[in-house]
Design brief:
The strands form four sheets. A seven-stranded mixed sheet has the order 3-2-1-4-15-16-17. Strands 8-9-12-13-14 form a five-stranded parallel sheet. Strands 5-6-7 form a three-stranded parallel sheet, covered by helices on one side. With 430 residues, the chain is an alpha/beta fold. Helices cover 29% and strands 22% of the residues. Bound molecules: zinc ion. Zinc ion binds next to loops.
C-alpha cells in the first residue's frame, strides 16, 4: 500500500512525503516514491493531510466480558479506530475480572475474535479487584500490558507494596487508580464550588493525592515503575513532580476531559458530567496544563468509559461514573489546545504516541519510522465536525460534549498494515 502526499512531523515541522507499507511494516518514507508496478499496488492519495503514528491509549474500558450492554469489544475497537487509535489497553474491571490465566483468556479470546486494532489487556492487581489477595500476577505476566485494579484504589498499603515488589521482579508496571475510600465521603462530584450550589456531596482532592503520596513512597521502596491513572488535582501533580525529582520511577496520565473542563462547566444536575475522578477546580485544571508543559505529566489517556443512557440519566448522584472518549479525544484536544497555541501539534501527538511507547518500552510502535509496524492515522486538521453521539461507533453515547464543534478529524486509520477505519467521503482507495 502506498500513501501519496502525506504531511508528517519531522523535528516539529510538517514535511511532505510518501509512505510505502509492505505487509504490516512501514517499508519506506521518502519524497515522491514511484513503484515499477504502481498499477498493481493499492495507492491512496491522502491529499496533503497530516499523518501521525497511530495513537496509543493505555486506559479504556471495553466492558467485555461481563458488561456488553454498555459496550462490546467489537464496537469499542471500531470506535477507537475511528478516533485514530491503533493500540489500546483495556482495563480489568470486568466480569470475570482477569485475575488469573483462565479469566484472562476469556478476555483475550474476545479480543482476538472481535477487535480490529491491537489490544493488550491489564491483569488485575488483586483477586476480583477486592484489594485483599494478590492476583496470579506471575502467571499472567507474559500476556498482560501491566497490572491495575482500575475503578478502585488498592486500600491496603501492604497489599500494594507486595504487588509492586512482585511487579518489579516481573518487569511490569503497576498502574493505579488512586482513591482512598475513607475520603470519598459519599461524594459524586468535586468538593468545591458547584457541588455546594447543586447540593451534591463532594469528593475532596485529598481522596486522590493522599494515595499517590503513599504509592510513590512504596514505588521508591520496591523499585517498581508506578504509573498514576487520570491525575486530576494540583496536589497530585505536585507530588508526582517531587517524586520524579527524587528519581522515583513514577509516570502519569491525564484525560482529555480533565484538561478541557472544570467543575464550573457542570451547569446542572446532569449525570453526563459525572466521572471519577471528578472535574476539579480552575486551579487544578491549570496545574494539569502546567504539568503537561513541564513534562510532569507524561501522556494522555482517554478513560473511555461507556455506559447505557439509562445509567447516565439519573442525575449526578445516582448515575454511573465515566464518559466515552475514544472518538473525540484528538479532535477536542487539537481544537482547544493546538489551535489556540497552548500545545504544539508535535507535543499533542507525542503525548498520544511516542511518549506512551517510551515510558512503557513499547518498541515497535508510537513512531512513524521505517521498519516499525504500519500503525498510522491520517487526520484532516482543517475539517470541521459537530460531535454527534448518534454517529459514534461506540455503544456508549455518554459524553457531555455532544454538539460541540471540533477540527482535526481522523479520516483513515491503518493498524498493522490494514485499513481499520476509512471515511469514504474523504478518502478514495484505488
Ligand atoms: Zn480509574
Amino acid at each position: 500500500m502506498l500513501l501519496k502526499n502525506c504531511k508528517i512531523l519531522k523535528n516539529g515541522e510538517l514535511e511532505k512525503v510518501d509512505i510505502l507499507i509492505k505487509e504490516n511494516k512501514i517499508e519506506k518514507i521518502s519524497e515522491n516514491i514511484v513503484l515499477e508496478n504502481m498499477d498493481k499496488e493499492k495507492v491512496i492519495n491522502v491529499k496533503e493531510r497530516f499523518v501521525s503514528a497511530g495513537f496509543i491509549d493505555v486506559h479504556v474500558h471495553w466492558r467485555e466480558p461481563g458488561f456488553s450492554k454498555k459496550e462490546t469489544i467489537y464496537t469499542a475497537s471500531r470506535a477507537a479506530a475511528r478516533g485514530g487509535f491503533t493500540t489500546v489497553m483495556p482495563m480489568p474491571n470486568l466480569n470475570p475480572v482477569p485475575d488469573d490465566v483462565e479469566t484472562l483468556n476469556k478476555q483475550l479470546e474476545i479480543i482476538k475474535k472481535d477487535s480490529v486494532i491491537r489490544a493488550i489487556p491489564y491483569g488485575a492487581i488483586t483477586k476480583e479487584e477486592y484489594g485483599k489477595e494478590l492476583a496470579d500476577m506471575e502467571a499472567m505476566a507474559k500476556d498482560v500490558f501491566a497490572f491495575s485494579d482500575d475503578g478502585r484504589g488498592v486500600q491496603n498499603a501492604n497489599v500494594m507494596y507486595e504487588a509492586m515488589r512482585l511487579a518489579a521482579k516481573l518487569n511490569k508496571p503497576v498502574i493505579a487508580h488512586c482513591e482512598d475510600n475513607s475520603l470519598i465521603r459519599g461524594g459524586a462530584m468535586h468538593d468545591g464550588i458547584r457541588n455546594k450550589e447543586l447540593g451534591i456531596k463532594g469528593i475532596p482532592s485529598i481522596c486522590e493525592s493522599v494515595q499517590i503520596a503513599r504509592d510513590v513512597l512504596l514505588a521508591e521502596a520496591s523499585n517498581c515503575h508506578y504509573h498514576v491513572c487520570h491525575i486530576s488535582t494540583k496536589e497530585s501533580v505536585r507530588t508526582v513532580r517531587e517524586a520524579k525529582k527524587n528519581g522515583i520511577k513514577v509516570t502519569c496520565e491525564v484525560t482529555p476531559h480533565h484538561l478541557l473542563s472544570t467543575e464550573l462547566d457542570v451547569k446542572e444536575d446532569d449525570g453526563m458530567w459525572k466521572m471519577n475522578p471528578p472535574l476539579r477546580s480552575i486551579e487544578d485544571r491549570k496545574a494539569l496544563i502546567d504539568g503537561v508543559l513541564d513534562r510532569t505529566i507524561d501522556i494522555i489517556a482517554t478513560d473511555h468509559a461507556p455506559h447505557t443512557l439509562e445509567e447516565k440519566t439519573r442525575g449526578i448522584e445516582k448515575s454511573s461514573f465515566g464518559i466515552v472518549g475514544s472518538e473525540t479525544a484528538f479532535s477536542q484536544l487539537y481544537t482547544k489546545f493546538v489551535k489556540t497555541k497552548i500545545f504544539s501539534l508535535d507535543l499533542l501527538v507525542k503525548l498520544m504516541t511516542e511518549n506512551v511507547a517510551k515510558i512503557f518500552d513499547l518498541k515497535d510502535y508510537g513512531k512513524l519510522e521505517e521498519k516499525k509496524l504500519a500503525d498510522l492515522v491520517v487526520i484532516d486538521l482543517e475539517k470541521e465536525q459537530i460531535i454527534d453521539v448518534e454517529k459514534f461507533l461506540s455503544k456508549g453515547k455518554n459524553t457531555p460534549y455532544n454538539g460541540e464543534k471540533v477540527n482535526g478529524i481522523p479520516v483513515l486509520t491503518i493498524c498493522d498494515g490494514k485499513i481499520v477505519y476509512i471515511d469514504r467521503d474523504e478518502i478514495e482507495e484505488r
